Amino acid sequence: MAQGFGLRTFTAIGIVAVAAIAVFLLGHDVQATLVTLVGGVAAVLAAAGTSEVATDPDQPRAAPKASLSDLGPDVGDVLEAIVEPILIVAEGRVMQANGAARALLGGHIVGQNVRLAIRHPAAAERLVGPLEPGAVEPIDLVGLGTLDQRWQMRVAQSRGVGGAGSQRIVHLIDQTGNYAAERMRVDFVANASHELRTPLASILGYIETLSEEAGEDAGLRARFLKIMDDEARRMQRLVEDLISLSRIEAEKYRLPDRAVDLAELIAEVRAEITKGKVMLDLEEAVPAVAGDRVQLSQMLHNLIGNAIKYGRADAAVTVRLWQDIGGMVRLSVADQGDGIPAEHIPRLTERFYRVDPGRSRAGGGTGLGLAIVKHIVERHRGRLDIASVIGTGTTVSIILPAHGDLKPK
What we know:
With 409 residues, this protein is of the alpha+beta class.
């Protein structure tokens, strides 16, 4: 009883009893005394019950009624809001899967054995076997979705969602982009090494030959020196292109802000090119573009040089410049060559990609020309398109914003 009501309650009851005795001694009225005693004790007990519920830490408290505003979002809504595939697994079966997971693995996976939903030998043990406490290393998966996709799977233990028992949360992270970037980096290093090694080996071989008796023949010596000079210059062009590409990539997010008159620049580039026939079709009053003059000049040299190299010897290369109805500045360089098969066009701007490697190297190409053009156009927030018809020729089109229209993103 003492634990139920506390010391304050008994003290209050004692005060009520003293008051009742005082009423009896003053009036000798038994009825009034009883009313005072009973009423006082009842009031004290009622107050004590309310007070003890509110203040006694040992008493269980009734849970407050939750309003709709106090309730959290449904777990399913949370999962659907996540853009990466998420699965909730309990007792070896997929209990919930968000839209991204269903799109990747199929809508039938809910309720299915998780090892059937994610068919991968490396994933099986992690999905149903015991999980070690602490951080668990992710698992790389190949073959989910399409063959060229790469996924990283992370599994975490959960005490249960929505009152369920022990569960696992499976998180799939798309690593395809990172894998592709790493593959490009490896390919780039391998290709650059090969492109440098070939002329270097040739130069060293001719030097060794000239150091022997072949160096005494003036005609042979002159021919060998010419080959060595060509190979050295090929290496020089490659190194310069690699440096140029690296510089352009480093400046990718630095917007050019100087006004460049493309018509004037095209005329300058044409005067610098000594080989081939170049025809100009330049519209009047084309506005200047916001650009880097050096890079735009390099872009024009690469485009016109490629068109001359791969066009017919007796045919002209046509360079057009105009402003479209949307206010964008358009440039096109068209040759009259053999054309390029459609399957090669998407890869033409890749580093070191060549439709005809032998012809490209014989013409002094480094395999980086269109890759450099692509990066220059991207830095200028423009667009590059390549169209080709077999037996007719190839046209490279570029769209650039006029000066004043280029805004930082």
